Amino acid sequence: MAGFARETMALAILLLAILACSAELQRFESPAKPDGSLSILIVGDWGRKGQFNQSQVATQMGRIGEELDIDFVVSTGDNFYEDGLTGVDDKAFEESFTNIYTSKSLQTQWYSGKLNKMEINVLSDQYLMFNLIKIYVAMLPVLGNHDYRGDVLAQLSPVLRNIDGRWLCLRNFILNAEIVDFFFVDTTPLVESYWTNPEDHHYDWREVAPRENYIPNLLKDLDAALKESTAPWKIVVGHHTMRSVSEHGDTPELLAFLLPVLKDNGVDLYVNGHDHCLEHISSKDSPIQYLTSGGGSKAWRGVFTPNSDKLRFFHDGQGFMSLQLTVAAANIVFYDVFGQELYRWSVTKSLRAAE
């Protein structure tokens, strides 16, 4: 713990000292519905080729997705177990994604419109030569720690979009959906133990290392993007827990580095996976709500460790989450593996919270 404290202090000092330039976060657009609303599903920790009830969760996602007329799906990471993808030709991509999420509501949510007079030009398998385009995908994932144990560049490659056009995976990016800005953050490189104590695992740090550069550059870009946002709602999506009462608990590095940026910029929700459960925790010193949706397949960890913030809901099992937004209100629902509603909560911009 003392070692982490020293590392935290050193990196905190470095954050203040580094002024190096870095590219701004790539930005995408997706229209809200004609009435100005938005409906999405959020699921995490799912990629097990249909096993551990992944297929059952996917079926219920399809049913709820149709009822809500969803606009797209967000994945909170750990997309392919146990060790990510081996490459762009790894059949696990289709076995865990394409062949599992087959319901009509998860298959046909395509976006249309012009590309703002900008062409999509492929620079390489990892990079795209655009900053602002309209998106045409139904699945927006972040990377998890298990994804980093394989070929990370494969998940980031546009080759996968040729296999399944719903897939759009980048390390850090912004999705503007008119009434909300989603900020997708790659949190795995923030966690020190993956670098210093990987145990028997190999982590693919290509295009990330060194960590001491990645962290300040990410936080600088995220802070700038959040400050520029004029959307009524600001939602940050990452894989690792900020606050959690389950197996992994709080992630110290996220509390030290990421949370201050979120608080300073009025972020409404932080949504994550990593812990294989469903939970809602309210911050006691800010308006931020911490939402864990990591029940996409293997779950039932049997761990419960309270923390200092307010626990509103915890389900140690499989399931997923829906989020419905208008300019004035957000409605959150957690569902179990059978598609049964477990918990519902709402928040408004004027009243901030509905108890």
First-residue to last-residue Cα separation: 37 Å
Secondary-structure element series: HEEHEHHEEHHEEHHEHEEEEEEE
Number of helices: 9
Record field, number of beta strands: 15
The amount of beta strand, in percent, is 15-25%
User: What is the overall silhouette?
Assistant: globular
Estimate the helix proportion, in percent.
10-25%
C-alpha Rg (nearest Å): 19 Å
Give the low-pLDDT segments: 1-22, 108-133, 351-355
Strands side by side in the biggest sheet = 4-1-6-7-8-9-11-10-12
Mean pLDDT: 87
Main beta-sheet strand count, sense and barrel state: 9 strands, mixed
Structural class: alpha/beta
Pfam family, one: Metallophos
Signal peptide: 1-23
Binding site for Fe cation 1: 45, 78, 81, 276
Cofactor: Fe cation
Describe how the helices and strands are arranged.
Blueprint: H1 2-17, E1 26-29, E2 38-43, H2 54-68, E3 72-75, H3 92-98, H4 104-107, E4 132-134, E5 139-141, H5 152-156, H6 159-163, E6 173-176, E7 180-184, H7 193-196, H8 211-228, E8 233-237, H9 252-264, E9 269-272, E10 278-282, E11 289-293, E12 310-315, E13 319-325, E14 329-336, E15 341-348
Parallel strand pairs: 1-4, 1-6, 2-3, 3-5, 7-8, 8-9, 9-11
Antiparallel strand pairs: 2-13, 6-7, 10-11, 10-12, 13-14, 14-15
Helix pairs in contact: 1-8, 8-9
Outline of this structure?
With 355 residues, the protein is α/β, with parallel strands linked by helices.
